[in-house]
Amino acid sequence: SNLKPAPRSQFAPLKDVKCGDSIIIPPMGQSPKDFGKYNKGSILLITEQMLELWDKMQGQQRITYRRVLSGPMGVGKSYLSYFLAARAYAEGWLILYISDAGVLDTEEEADSYMQVIERFLVMNKDVLTAAELEKLVCGYNGQWDIWSTAITPVFNILMQKKRKTLTVVDEHGMLFRSTIPVPAKFISLKPLMDLASWTDGNLGSHLILTGTAHAKYELEVMEPSYRCDYTTVVFVGPLSENDFLELLKNVTNLNPVDVEEIVKVTNRVPRELMQLDTFVQENSGLPVNEALSKFEIDRKGFFAEVAENYYKRIKEDHFSRERFFHGLAQAFLYGSGNGNFKWDFLDLGLLYRFKRDGSTLFLPLCNATQKALLELFKLMPMPENLMRRLKANNINGDDFE
User: Fold this and answer.
1) How far apart are CA 6 and CA 262, in angstroms?
2) Which end of the chain is less packed: N or C, by CB atoms within 10 Å?
3) Which residues does 255 contact at the CB level (< 8 Å), separation at least 6?
4) What domains are defined for the chain?
């Protein structure tokens, strides 16, 4: 199978990694989208958040471990989940790793289920017990296809108390592109949508869901009890200062540039750094500082087009338009955590979220994003209800904070 990973023994060095290490990941049979695009080979930078999540995962659990990694494109969510899968594989855990949930969105139920079954078997055939193997084939008698009898036992094995297991689904939002989500269409995939399926008694079970265009799941599909839970949703944003300095060592075209200038342009976002490095290389005739300025102008233009296209889609809808205006005002003018954005705007990847003092705050992804959004905000007409209140002198302090 093309999905077959390297032997677990080759992953042993992952057991001893430290924050800031750059390590080559042996073949996992799958890898995150664009993995290795900006560097040579399968090199992974070990970040603080990777080790923080792993330390919590491997500890004793009082309830089943469920985490939804949330953040805009380019901050490293896929690399984070990839590390967790590789580390658990090295430790001998039972693993289901799906790097692109889009493979489950098929016409036929059988094709979707076989994508799960094959990945589970190739990653775990060396550690499955005789009893677990028997569960997988107990309903197979030659009259029915294996996909119809093995899919439920796969999830039953992953949802257990005695052994540690990890299920990682990346590009998870791909399951919710249609009116009927894939796990609703193919009912045996319900555990990939319904967090409550992973009952709290299964203390060995660990579930990680993440991906681009994921806010629809987080804000509309995920059960409200988990949506409001402070621990289930883990926000992934720009790198810490130390992690970013380590990542800088992997770029080759920014050496003469002051680190503070790079941070100002990229906001320590990995994708922005790698694109900046490529931009400087492709514009080698420009002085580096001039290239930085031009890069930021180009990125502002890109983000502005994304934001303007979104506004064009919603501006005829009175409710959506006012909600968007107030969301931007709350997030950028008032410094409030109550930016009430719809999932489709969050999926554009212009903002990231973080938690502070029990509140959720919104911030622009980088400097170019902030400039693009503020420019759009200035051009937006003031909502009618606020105009009426201004005329009637019926406003409160928050409106001018």
Assistant:
1) 37
2) N
3) none
4) 8-235 (3.40.50.300), 239-401 (no CATH)
